[in-house]
Amino acid sequence: MSGEKDNGRGDFVPEITAFTCIYCGYMAADTAGALRLKYPANVKLIRLPCTGKVDVRYILESFEQGADGVYIVACPIGNCHHVHGNERAVARVDYTKRLLDEIGVGGERLDIVFTSGGMGATFAEAARRMTERVRELGPNPLKKTG
Question: What would the pLDDT profile of 116-134 be if each residue is shown by its tens digit?
Fold first, then answer.
């Protein structure tokens, strides 16, 4: 028995990857920092020109490389700087969730949130929510230690 999971509680700190667009998503993270809003330090940000550039491969590789959870921080629907980029991201997230369920990782480890650049509190809350969800789920089943 591995002591790593500990029923999703205890010492387990999930590794979370957040893909953000350089507009609303990253600006919301920056606003959270400027406002000194606290959110978990276990969230690793990856900036993309647009969340429409989030490829299924990038998401799957995040899990293969050890992420316990992944989420995308996109512009609000109807307000994408690249017109339909966030809508493409939604379709890719939905598809990837089904793939993650099929391979036994679990689609609930993946999510997408929508925020504008000034919504630092929304960004911080999404990071807390995702961290807590993944903590409950336990470590990524692809992580094989020992």
Answer: 888 999 999 999 999 999 9
Is 11 contained in some domain?
Answer: no
Does the predicted TM-score (pTM) go above 0.90? no
Query: Do the domain assignments include residue 6?
Result: no
Rounded distance between C-alpha atoms, residue 136 and residue 133, angstroms: 5
Number of structural domains found in the chain? 1
CATH, residue 72:
3.40.50
For the segment 85-121, what is each residue's pLDDT rounded down to a tens digit? 888 999 999 999 999 999 999 999 999 999 988 899 9
Q: What is the domain extent for residue 109?
A: 16-77+85-137
Q: What angle do CA 113, 114, 115 make, to 5 degrees?
A: 125
Q: What is the DSSP string of the chain?
A: --TT-GGG-TT----EEEEEETTHHHHHHHHHHHTT----TTEEEEEES-GGG--HHHHHHHHHTT-SEEEEEEPPTT-BTTBSHHHHHHHHHHHHHHHHHHTTS-GGGEEEEE--TT-HHHHHHHHHHHHHHHHHH-S-TT----
100 domain residue, yes or no? yes
